[in-house]
Amino acid sequence: MMGGEMEPGSTGDERVDAVLAALGALPGTPVAGHVAVFERVHLGLQEVLADAESARGATG
After folding, report:
1. Judging by beta carbons within 10 Å of its beta carbon (0-12, 13-18, 19+), is residue 41 exposed, middle or buried?
2. Of 1, 15, 24, 41, which sees the most CB atoms within 10 A?
3. Could you name the domain of life of the organism this protein comes from (predicted)?
4. What is the pTM of this model?
């Protein structure tokens, strides 16, 4: 990619993209299992956010 362009469907943050990739499991997962997928994604995003906040606090 040139000029800082992002891939389609990319957030620009590799960790966030990796967490969100878990949503790709939804089509093959019975509806009863969707909550577990969403919970894993939610937890993963919380972890990324917490790391970002602590890194910002360490530099600011």
Report:
1. middle
2. 41
3. Bacteria
4. 0.76
